[in-house]
Amino acid sequence: MPYYYADSSGNNNKAFLNSAVGKVIHLGSGESKTVEAINKMKTGVEGFTQELDNLKSRIDVNSAFGQDKINGLIQDKASALAGVGSGIVGGMSNKLYENMGPMLNGGLVGLYDDVYMKVFAATMSPAMANKAGVAAQASMLSPIGDIEGLLPCLTNQVTNNLTNSLAAILGSVANNVFSYADCVGDQVTGAIMNDVIGQISEGMASAMGGIGKLMKFMGDFSVEGLLRNGVDALLGMAGMGDCGVSPSPHTGAAKYRVGFGPIVQDAPDLSAIIKDANTAKAISDAAALAGVPLDGVQDILGGFSLLSGGISNAASALGGGIGDGIRSCSSALPTLCEPPKINIFGGGGRDAEAIPFYGNIVGDVRKTGSIIGIKMTNPGNGYLYPPFVEIVDSCKQGYGAVARATVKDGKVNEIYMVSEGENYPIRDGEPPVISDVTIINPGSGYEKGDTVTDDFDNEYDVKISSGSIVKVTPINSKDITDIPTLTVNSSTGSGALLKANLDERPEFQGEVKQVIDCPET
Fold first, then answer.
1. pLDDT at 18
2. What pairs with residue 165 in β-bridges?
3. Residue 243: what pLDDT?
4. Coil, strand, or helix at residue 178?
5. Of these four, 11, 53, 105, 439, which has the most CB atoms within 10 Å of its CB?
6. How far apart are CA 490 and CA 89, in angstroms?
7. Which of 285, 291, 282, 71 is closest to 174 using CA atoms?
8. Are 380 and 411 in contact (CB under 8 A)?
C-alpha cells in the first residue's frame, strides 16, 4: 500500500513514498477460488440437509437423545464448512486492503494540501508550508501501520469465529428448511458474508479512529461500506447481467450422487447473493432501529426470512417494501410431486432439451414408474463433447435412472438409457411406441428370411444386403412399458446390434386401403 508525501524541496507535493508498512497482504486467492469456495459451501449445506433428513427418519427428534444427535451433526458440519468459509474471509479481507490503499493515499494528499495551504497563507513561506504538510502526513503513518498490522490478525480471528457463526446458521437451517433448494445455499452464503463484514467492521473500528484527520479527505468512507461495495469486484461481478444477456441454464460442473447419477451445479449467481445479503442487513438494521428484538442468530442472518423465522414479519411491519429486494425462496416440502425433468448441461453447448418416457408403472392414485426412454425435442448447438444428463423430480423420490448423451455435428443427437431406475412420480399418459430402429452394428452372415423380434411381440420388416442388416422398420406399434430388447433370429448370421427408439404414438391416419409389396432388385 504505497503512499505519497511532499519532497524536501517543496516543488512536488505528490512524490512517491515507499512506506515500510506498505506491503500487499495476499489473503485471498482470486475470483475462481472464491467461486469454488461458495460452490463448496452450498454443496456442504445441501449435504447437511440430506444427513439431517436421514437422521430424522431414524430417531425421535423431540427426545433428548435426538436433540443431542442433531446438535452433534450441526457442530461437525459447522467445523467442516469453516475451512471452506476461510476462503471467503480471506478474499474479502484482501479486497478491503486493496481498496483502502487508494483512499488512504487520497486522504494523505488531501491532508498535505490542506495543511500546506493553511501554513502558507499564514507564513507565505513554501518551505515552512511544505515542512508542516510532510509532518502532518508522517503523523498518520503509525495509525495506518496499525491498520495494516491489524487486518491479517483480524482475518484469522474472524476465520476462527466462523465455526460458531456457522453452527448458529445451520441450527436455523435445521429448524426452518424441510427441502433443500439452491436458494437455501445462497442465503446461507449471504448470511456468512454479512457476519464476516460485521466482524471485520467492528474489529477495525478502534484502529480507524486513529486516522480521523484523514477521513474528511476520503469521501463517504466506511469499512462496512467499502466491504459491501467492493465484494462485487472481489467476486468478478463487474458487468454481469448487463446488456440484457441472460446466462445459459445448466452450464456448471457436475456433482455425482450415488443412486441419482450426475447432478447439475451451476456457477453461483454471485451478484444476486450479494444484493440479497445487503438487503438482508438493511432489514435487520431497520428492525433494530424500530425496536424489534433480534436474537443472536437473527442478527447474524439479517433479513433472510427463510432462515431467521420471525424477522420476516418484522420486515413486513416496517413497511416501505424494505424486504422486497430479497429473492423469494421456499424450502417447504413439495405439495405435488411433479414428473421428472431432463437437465442437459456441460459439453460446451447449450439449449438441448428432452422429455422422458415412462414404464414399469405401479400404483393407482399416486403412480410411480421408471424412465425407459428419452426423446430429444431440441438438439441444441455448440456441443464439443457429450453433455451430462440429469434426471430429477421435484420430490426427489425417484432414483437409479442413468442416461448418456451422444453428440454429432455440435448437436445432441441422442440420449440413451443406461438404467431405468424406479419410483419416479408420473402422470397418466399414453405409453410410447417403437418409432424406428438404430443399427449399431449390421453384423454379417445374415440371410433373407431372418427375423427381428422384441419382448413386446412387435413385428419388423428386415432388409439385408451382402449378409448385413441394413434396415429394420417396425410394422406394428404395441405399447412399450419397459426398455425393449431386440433379438435377431438367424441360423447363419451374427454380430448385429440393434437399438429401439421410442416416441409418442402417432395420430391415427385411417384404415389401410392397399398394401403394395415392391419386389427387390
1. 33
2. none
3. 34
4. coil
5. 105
6. 69
7. 71
8. yes
Question: What sign does the CA torsion over 13, 17, 22, 28 have?
Answer: positive
Q: Which residue has the cell 440479497?
A: 276
**How buried is 43 (Cβ within 10 angstroms: 0-12 exposed, 13-18 middle, 19+ buried)?**
middle
pLDDT, residue 291, reads 64
CA distances from 337 to 179, 333, 368, 423 (A): 13, 10, 10, 11
Amino acid identity at 228? R
C-alpha cell at 294: 433480534
Return the number of other C-beta atoms located less than 10 Å from residue 177's C-beta: 24
pLDDT score of 12: 39
pLDDT at 371: 93
Number of H helices, E strands in the chain: 11, 17
The helix (run of H) or strand (run of E) holding residue 421 is strand 411-422
Please tell me whether residue 437 adopts helix, strand or coil conformation.
strand
CB 393 within 8 A of CB 407: no
Length of the chain: 521
Cell of 317: 411491519
Query: Does residue 190 contact residue 270 with C-beta atoms inside 8 Å?
Result: no
Nearest residue to 401 (alpha-carbon basis) of 366, 360, 439: 360
Residue 232: the pLDDT is: 52
Q: What is the pTM of this model?
A: 0.60
- Residue 450 identity: D
pLDDT at 413: 92
Q: In this predicted structure, what is the pLDDT of residue 205?
A: 87
Between CA 316 and CA 283 the distance in angstroms is 10
Structure confidence at residue 245 (pLDDT): 38
**What does each C-alpha distance from 472 to 304, 469, 494, 516 come to in angstroms?**
59, 8, 16, 18
Give the separation between CA 218 and CA 107, rounded to whole angstroms. 5
DSSP label at residue 456: T
Position of cell 491498520?
147
Regions in the chain scoring below 70 on pLDDT: 1-35, 230-271, 286-288, 290-328, 330-335, 508-521
Grid cell at residue 344: 442437459
Question: How many Cα neighbours within 13 Å face the side chain of 74?
Answer: 18
In the chain the first and final C-alpha atoms are separated, in Å, by: 87
Kindly state the cell numbers that stand for 488: 435377431
**Residue given cell 456442504 in the structure block:** 44
Which triple of cell numbers denotes residue 1?
500500500
Buried-exposed string 193-204: b where 16+ CB fall within 10 A, e elsewhere? bbbbbbbbbebb
Instruction: Give the pLDDT score at 118.
Output: 95
CA 208 to chain centre: 36
C-alpha cell at 465: 444386403
> What is the C-alpha separation between 229 and 270, in angstroms, rounded?
13
Q: Where are the alpha helices (DSSP H) in 177-291?
A: 182-203, 205-209, 212-215, 223-234, 270-289
Cα–Cα distance, 391 to 176 (Å, whole number): 27
Predicted pLDDT at 511: 59
* CA-closest candidate to residue 425, choices 495, 509, 478, 356: 356
pLDDT at 301: 55
180 phi/psi in degrees, rounded to 5: -65, 135
